[in-house]
Specification:
about 55% helix, eight-stranded mixed β-sheet, alpha/beta, 28 helices
Length: about 675
């Protein structure tokens, strides 16, 4: 019931739901306490509403945001509480006392301060918002960008300003309880003085040297930097907050380009969610600003998504435009007719080329280039199971999706069967269970199945820990744990202190320290190694959260069980045995026909009876009848192992840049010839 309420209210936890309930019930309790009247009851109810409101705002609760849509926003809630306090004073027969009129005057004046406070905050934010935002771009040497106001002043400023009424509220309640006006007037004075000081503290940031240069000067500075940097290859991206992963997956590839890279973003929210990178980043929300930007040195533009805003760069004829997408799959999005607008479409392997041919959406075969998947470089090839080591099987199901399609995930119908058979396998295997982070967010049944699987794995892990057959070097595990803690501390030190006051300040100072960036990469690799050594190589494990990453789990596993998703396509790069569940019960032949990535997989029914075939393939190479099929499928989906994918990618960039340069030189020659002809005619 609680989980249903959480889902309906769209809150993040039971605590958030409880806070919302307390806040909603607190206001009727305030009215009742004012009418009775009871000062202690009113004070208790007021404290509950204050604390619940603060907690929900700190959590960024969806419910609080919705209240403003039904005219019960933050200011209204504070006003109601203040009116009920005045009602309490009247019911206590204080309406003829000076403190009563003082309370009314205080709250009127206090709300009078809200207007200049809100106006000043809005002016500061608007005037500090530059037409572009950048990372790894040296703007500091070209324009003066002043420090932002303290985060204490601007962060959740409306909430902070309204909470200044606490002093007046507490003072008035003390006066009501003690029949003395002194505390009330002291509280009123504190509230009004603090409110006035808050407004005055913000005023200097509205004008003068406290605000950044105007848009014209900022854009000129960016163009000046572009002329000095002379970018050659651009990664262009536009999308919503949830799509930031689509550009993040290409950052490492951009860092490895042989040409000078640049990342162009169109939404500020994407910049805010961009992973750390050493590549220069320019976020240009305005289409006119982008079209006027000096990109004359760019020869290749890469597009990770098909969106309408792509047109603002596609219109530039001096560069060649390429759709690289954000992962190959059999989904319709992988053969979007929009792809016809690009000069080339780059796919991982032959499968992508065939996909366009079958779809017949107008993309010519000559315009398709196979470049592999550079992002899969961290995935290590199969090494085989060493003698004496317990094989590891990764179970990585996808989530339930937005509909009730039983084929979305194996969790509901097959998950427990799969895990039970793996946990009771003889000879034994180690089970790593890594669920999708969205598991259970839509379906309560999927959430319940996930929790049962977690319980199964944890119970089996505890039993195995007491089994003398699985003893190992406890001292080595302890040393690894100590090393893990040391690395965590160092990563926290390097990652800390990077948050800037606002977007303008972040653009000024947001230049990545290359040495620190490299050290963080090295430390994360060391962290991953220490993590796997910090527990037994036989120990079952539930892995949640961002670390260790999915690819790290691939590398320590000898086989995988999963569902139809990009997880399967990526795992194929390892060449290791894998199984995929036909949860919708399409049948083996139809399931393989519809899903290219499962053609070299062991196909599981919901009973998971076929798992024995997968485990046999893990234990002995002679029993691995699908090894050849996997090798062939890997080449078909992802291209050849040699040259490496990043080498193929760089070659494709170089070849296309040459085409762009050839076209530009041809245009210049034609223009020169035309000019000469016109001059000759004029003479």
């Amino acid at each position: 019931m609680i989980s249903t309420a959480i889902r309906v209210a769209r809150v993040g936890s039971a605590a958030e739901l409880a806070a919302a309930a307390l806040m909603v019930l607190g206001f009727p309790a305030l009215m009742l306490a004012a009418l009775v009247p009871s000062v202690p009851a009113f004070a208790a109810a007021a404290a509950v509403t204050y604390l619940a409101d603060h907690y929900l705002h700190r959590k960024g609760s969806y419910l609080v945001n919705r209240l403003s849509k039904v005219r019960a926003g933050l200011s209204i809630r504070f006003l109601i509480r203040q009116l009920l306090l005045i009602l309490l004073l009247a019911r206590l027969n204080l309406s003829d006392h000076l403190i009563f009129y003082g309370a009314i005057a205080c709250f009127i004046a206090f709300y009078g301060l809200q207007a200049p406070h809100g106006a000043v905050v809005t002016l500061i934010r608007n005037r500090r918002r530059m037409p572009v935002a950048t990372r790894n771009v040296d703007l500091k040497a070209r324009i003066r960008i002043p420090d932002a106001p303290s985060r204490f002043l601007l962060n959740r400023s409306a909430e902070k300003m309204l909470h200044l009424d606490l002093a007046a509220g507490v003072g008035l309640l003390v006066s009501a309880a003690m029949d003395s006006a002194v505390a009330g007037f002291v509280g009123i004075g504190v509230t009004l003085v603090l409110g006035t000081l808050y407004v005055l503290a913000l005023v200097p940031y509205v004008r003068g040297r406290k605000i950044p240069p105007n848009a014209e000067k900022v854009l000129a500075a960016v163009d000046d930097w572009l002329r000095d940097y002379r970018p050659e290859t651009v990664l262009y991206f536009s999308g919503s907050r949830d799509s930031a992963y689509q550009v993040n997956m290409w950052l490492e590839t951009m860092e490895q380009l042989d040409t000078r890279p640049l990342i162009l973003l169109r939404e500020r929210v994407i910049l805010q969610n961009l992973a750390p990178t050493t590549v220069p980043v320019v976020c240009v929300p305005g289409g006119v600003h982008l079209m006027n930007m000096d990109l004359s040195n760019v020869r290749v533009a890469l597009y990770a998504a098909n969106v309408g805003k792509n047109i603002h760069l596609l219109r530039v004829p001096t560069m060649k435009h390429v759709f690289i997408g954000h992962g190959d799959s059999d989904k319709l999005a992988s053969v979007n007719p929009y792809s016809k607008v690009y000069d080339e479409v780059w796919t991982a392997g032959r499968a992508g080329r065939d996909r366009y041919a079958i779809a017949d959406v107008g993309v010519r075969d000559d315009d398709i280039v196979e470049v592999g998947r550079p992002q899969l470089a961290p995935i290590q090839p199969a090494q085989g199971v060493r003698d004496g080591r317990v094989p590891t099987v990764l179970y990585a199901p996808t989530w339930e999706g937005w509909d009730d399609n039983p084929g979305n995930t194996s969790l509901l119908l097959a998950g427990e069967n799969i895990v039970r058979k793996l946990l009771t396998a003889d000879p034994p295997v180690r089970v790593l269970y890594k669920p999708h982070p969205f598991t259970g967010t839509v379906s309560a049944l999927a959430g319940a199945a996930h929790r049962r699987i977690v319980a199964l794995v944890e119970k089996a892990a505890a039993e195995r820990a007491d089994d003398p057959r699985f003893a190992d070097d406890a001292a080595a595990r302890t040393r690894a744990g100590v090393e893990l803690a040391r690395i965590d501390v160092r990563i926290a030190e390097l990652s800390g202190g990077t948050e800037k006051g606002d977007e303008a300040e972040a653009s000024r100072d947001g230049v990545t320290d290359v040495a620190k960036h490299a050290e963080l990469a090295r430390l994360r690799a060391e962290w991953n190694d220490a993590y796997w050594r910090s527990f037994g190589s036989y120990e079952h494990r539930v892995i949640s959260g961002a670390e260790p990453r999915l690819y790290d789990c691939f590398n320590v596993s000898d086989a995988m069980v999963s569902d139809i998703s990009s997880v399967v396509s990526d795992f194929i790069a390892s060449g290791k045995p894998y199984a995929v569940t036909d949860s919708a019960e399409l049948g083996v032949e139809e399931f393989k026909r519809q899903n290219t990535a499962v053609r070299a997989a062991v196909i599981l029914s919901n009973s998971a009876e076929e798992l024995g075939e997968l485990l046999s393939a893990v234990r002995t190479s002679d029993a691995d009848t699908l090894a050849g099929d996997r090798k062939e499928l890997k080449r078909y989906l992802l291209g050849p192992d040699e040259p490496s994918s990043i080498e193929q990618f760089n070659t494709a960039v170089e070849n296309l840049a040459l085409k762009a340069q050839t076209r530009n030189l041809g245009q210049e020659a034609r223009a020169a010839a035309s000019g000469a002809a016109e001059a000759e005619l004029a003479n």
